[in-house]
Amino acid sequence: MQKYIDYILQQAKSLLAIDSPSGFTEKVADYVVEEYQKLGYEVKKTKKGCVLAHIPGKDTKDGLMLTSHVDTLGGMVAEVKSDGRLRITPIGGLNANNVEGENCKVYTVDGEVYEGTCQLVDASIHVNDKYDEIKRTFHTVEIVLDEGVSSKEETKKLGIENGDYVCFDPRIVITKKGYIKSRFLDDKLSAAILLGQAKYLKECEIIPERDLYHYLTAFEEVGHGASASIPENVTEIISVDMGCVGEGLECTEHQVSICSKDSRGPYHYEAVKKLILTARENKIDYAVDVYPHYGSDADVALSAGADCRHGLVGPGIYASHGYERSHVDGVENTFRLLISYIK
Predict the structure, then answer these.
(1) pLDDT in tens, 297-324
(2) 328 within 8 A of 255, measured Cβ to Cβ
(3) 3-state helix, strand, coil in the chain (%, to 5)
(4) Cβ neighbourhood burial of 88 (10 Å; 0-12, 13-18, 19+)
(5) Beta-carbon neighbour count of residue 243 at 10 Å?
């Protein structure tokens, strides 16, 4: 088991190191395609950039799809300001409070990459006597480029334009106690778990009871990740996303979370029940929770017309959409549940 947990953690590091806000996911999708090909699976990219891998099962009429996403939160240049700094607009649920003081990169359409930092406008406490009073929004924070620019014209001369992507440093750390800290664990940690499952099945020569698909989507954070390209024989979709950790919820970073209901409504009772019973039978540490502010690719697939049962699981992650934290225990429990579920 440890061999596959180590593989998952290494894959998580590799995925997190590739900048990939929604719509800017070509490099991370190509990486995932290559990893599935190395494992010997049939895999393709969809027209909009999602990755679909097929793991043949015994029952070809009753397909199961496990979906995670490789797109993340990020920013986009909305204005090159008169002083050469950048106003950005958020991609997905990026929050200005969570990116102040963070290092970032600006990618131009010409292939240039410029470094910078997201700062409060007039960020020096020794100068700005309103520092504590200012509400952090994307109009009160800005990108300060690590370039000698002080005017709009000088910044634009670098090739920076409106629409350029702004990607934030994930700051990946795995502690000696097993805590995993990084931006964008939602959902690259679960994408790594799917790769771990694929490796496990291949090396152990296990054929799933049902046709199995791994669907790694590229637009989940903006709401339409799994809205298309679902194979016709899929009858059940399980979203493998982050498990919520916070006040009023039972899950911790050490567990696998099973979601019974999110802000879009309840998940399919039979799928949720089977996930719970599978966890119990295999002595997997789990929690069942209702997520108050959440939507998943499984929700999106059904909203787009998929006639499937649906569910949601994932490793417990604290501080979602900020500097997130999980634990190796949560990874292992999620991995074990997914392995047990497909048997």
Answers:
(1) 999 999 999 999 999 999 999 999 999 9
(2) no
(3) 30, 30, 40
(4) buried
(5) 32
DSSP string of 198-215, one letter each residue: HHHHHHTTPPPSEEEEEE
pLDDT at 196: 98
CA angle 133, 124, 72 (to 5 degrees): 75
What are the structure tokens assigned to 305, written together? Answer: 């017309």
Distance, CA of 315 to CA of 327 (rounded, Å): 8
**Cα 182 from Cα 13, distance rounded (Å):** 9
List 180's β-bridge partners, or say none: 174, 326
Q: What is the pTM of this model?
A: 0.97
Annotated catalytic residue, options 115, 147, 153, 220: 220
Q: Is 236 a catalytic residue?
A: no
Residues 6 or more apart in contact with residue 285 via CB below 8 angstroms: 254, 255, 256, 329, 333
Are 74 and 98 spatial neighbours (Cβ–Cβ below 8 Å)? no
Q: Which residues contact 38 (CB under 8 A, 6 or more apart)?
A: none
Compute, in degrees rounded to 10, the torsion defined by CA atoms 134, 139, 140, 141. Answer: 140
Residue 40 has pLDDT above 90, yes or no: yes
- Domains recognised in the chain with CATH numbers: 2-72+184-342 (3.40.630.10), 74-168 (2.40.30.40)
What distance in Å separates the CA atoms of residue 182 and residue 179, rounded to the nearest whole number? Answer: 10
Report which DSSP code applies to 21.
B
